[in-house]
Amino acid sequence: MFADRIPKWAVVSKKPILRQKVASDTASLLDLLVRHRERLSPLQPDTTETRLLQFLVERRREVVDEKTAQSNRLTDCLKLYFPQILRWFDDVASPLVGALLERWPSLQDLRRAHPGTLSKFFHEQNCRGEERIHERIAAIYQAVPATQDEAVLEAGAMTARGLVAVLAILRDNIAKLDRRIAQLVADHPEAALFDSLPGAGAALIPRLIVAFGTRRERYESAYQMRCYSGIAPVKVASGKTQTIRFRRACPKFLRQTFHEFALHSLQKSEWARAYYQLQRDRHKSHHAAVRALAYKWIRIIFRCWKDGKPYDEATYLQSQRRRSATLGATVASATAAGWKKVAGFNKSSAIPS
Questions:
Q1: 346 strand-pairing partners
Q2: CB of 163 within 8 A of CB of 85?
Q3: What was the pLDDT predicted at 339?
Q4: Residue 7 backbone phi and psi in degrees, to 5
Q5: Can you list the positions of beta strands (E) in 137-255?
Q6: pLDDT for 17
Q7: In a domain, 261, yes or no
Q8: According to the model, what pLDDT value does residue 129 have?
Q9: 282 and 176, same structural domain?
Q10: Per the domain annotation, does 350 fall within a domain?
Q11: pLDDT by residue (tens digit) across 141-197?
Q12: Total domain count for the chain?
């Protein structure tokens, strides 16, 4: 009945599309819709709280990237007429630098301020290190201006003040997003599960929650998640030639989530550090080794998610040894060492405490 409503200009050849020499994406999608509708499943959206969390964490990433871009623009501006700021302060996007530039937008203005005024200003900005304050004040009066060109100074000061105002708005927006995200995570039923993962902090827990969601029937296997997220590579075969390529057609934010989590897990999980080192010993690049670790983590998280059980590293290692898995051999070959007992737990003897 549906096929009867398709206009004549949209009807494809009666021959199977796969047998045609050239099959466009549109024709393939139309063939799937008309002849293989049983392979399509209806969209089942996740809960309102989970979808809201997804929108917020994605928006937060966009705002953070914008803050980084504006911070880089401010750095370029200061290099032109006020480069001393970059030596005196570690973060030009901080509220301290913003307040200083708003009050004294150039070195000439800053040097005209009284030392007591500068000291009071730093204290008002929560700078408590007296020695550090005195060093900065001394450096201010000893600094030599980068230029005396009035045109450069006025244009630079106006540009810097504008960028400082933009950064203040972005910082405020990020703080509001963080507070709302924290509220949603605190009330989310999956929060405890993802909080148990080593290396998952306040920024990654909500991103992992939205990566898997609450609809456990959405994915039938961990491999589906690996492919969808872009962590699984793509095998390209032609004749006797086979190559493994980076998967580019994927949700970039989702792939970044698993990549960053795998990277952070290196600080909290001993087997993850050993597995990463094994990939490096096999001459893989840093990012390729992190993706390989993420590939392994997805299977572990997927099983915890399906079963609704928090992750426990000791239980995982015991399960691997009980099944005679290759983890022990992998760690030994990667570090040329075995396992030792530390505070009642098994630990690789080549991994520092």
A1: 341
A2: no
A3: 43
A4: -60, 155
A5: 234-238, 241-245
A6: 43
A7: yes
A8: 87
A9: no
A10: no
A11: 999 999 999 999 999 999 999 999 999 999 999 999 999 999 999 999 999 999 999
A12: 3
26 and 84 both lie in a single domain: no
Residues 232 and 331 in one domain: yes
| DSSP structure string for 313-331 | HHHHHHHHHHTT-SHHHHH
First to last CA, the chain: 68
Residue closest to 50 by CA, chosen among 225, 259, 211: 211
Cα–Cα dist 312/16, whole Å = 51
Q: What is the mean pLDDT of the chain?
A: 86
What is the C-alpha separation between 107 and 145, in angstroms, rounded?
Answer: 6
pLDDT tens track for 5-33 = 545 444 444 444 444 444 577 888 888 88
- pTM summary value: 0.78
Query: How far is residue 53's CA from residue 17's CA, in Å, rounded to a whole number?
Result: 41
In the beta sheet, which residues pair with residue 235?
A: 244
d(CA 227, CA 221): 10
- Residues 35, 59 within the same domain: no
Q: What digits encode the pLDDT tens for the residues 266-293?
A: 999 989 999 999 999 999 999 999 999 9
Tokens 């934010």 correspond to what residue? 253
Classify residue 353: in a domain, yes or no. Answer: no
**Structural domain for 294, as ranges:** 191-336
Q: Do 307 and 196 share a structural domain? A: yes
Cα gap 202→209, rounded to integer Å? 12
- DSSP conformation letters of 160-176: HHHHHHHHHHHHHHHHH
Higher pLDDT, 29 or 262: 262
- Per-residue pLDDT for 338 more than 60? no
Give the length of the chain: 353
Dump strand ranges (E) for the chain: 234-238, 241-245, 339-342, 345-348
DSSP 9: G
**Which residues partner with 109 through β-bridges?**
none
